[in-house]
């Protein structure tokens, strides 16, 4: 009973905030509110967007768009996770690696994903490869930097204690450094997944034929405004769901990070 009450207490404010946003959207779009530089005259109401979402749900193109976007996300994010975590662990533990590898990565990090698109088109013979590369670049740096900070943030006293007990380098890495850096790594993976979706949509708008980003941009070009919002909401739901999945997986892999009452 107490657990159900706690669940309701947590979910009720979230549901009410979403409902308030929905009602505000309905009022602004139906009343065609004009607020200085911002106008809702061309924004479709929620009912029209819901109808467009229903039409898309029964369209065969939905599977094509979803499979294209999810495939690009999966491959680009997987490559970024492997390389970002691997490089982050090495740079965080090796002074030589930090001095030699970090400067070029720091130069490339502020470059936005949009700026990489022309170079990606030149580098990869297929548009599919260029879009996967853009998602990879977008996810790489949040994962890399959080991994580095996680490794550097491991308590030096734990490392010294493990060494004094005769722990070898490999055991020290797997039993002290990696578990200590794991929370930051999971945070980086979650942030990287969000930027991965952002970069994918940008790439699909320019060089895609299928995908949620391409669907959203195509809807704009044909002035189907309800479909634009459907694409935006679909991106938001998929991005949120994938980030939540990463956090849940991290909590499952790191039971020592949970409060004692949640472990039973």
From TrEMBL:
Checking Gene3D superfamilies in the record gives: MetI-like
Which residues, by range, are in coiled-coil regions?
A: none
Q: Where in the cell is it found?
A: Cell membrane
Does the keyword field hold Nucleus? no
* Alphabetically ordered keywords of this record: Cell membrane, Membrane, Transmembrane, Transmembrane helix, Transport
PANTHER family recorded:
ABC TRANSPORTER PERMEASE PROTEIN MJ0413-RELATED, ALKANE SULFONATE ABC TRANSPORTER-RELATED, MEMBRANE SUBUNIT
Q: Per the record, GO CC terms?
A: plasma membrane
In its UniProt entry, what is this protein called? ABC transporter permease
Record's CDD domains?
TM_PBP2 (cd06261)
Task: Spell out where the chain crosses the membrane.
Answer: 73-92, 104-124, 130-149, 170-191, 225-246
Q: Does the keyword Transmembrane helix apply?
A: yes
| Record membrane topology | Multi-pass membrane protein
Kindly give the Pfam families that the UniProt entry links to this protein. Answer: BPD_transp_1
The entry assigns this protein to a family as follows: Belongs to the binding-protein-dependent transport system permease family.
| All copies of domain ABC transmembrane type-1, residue ranges | 66-246
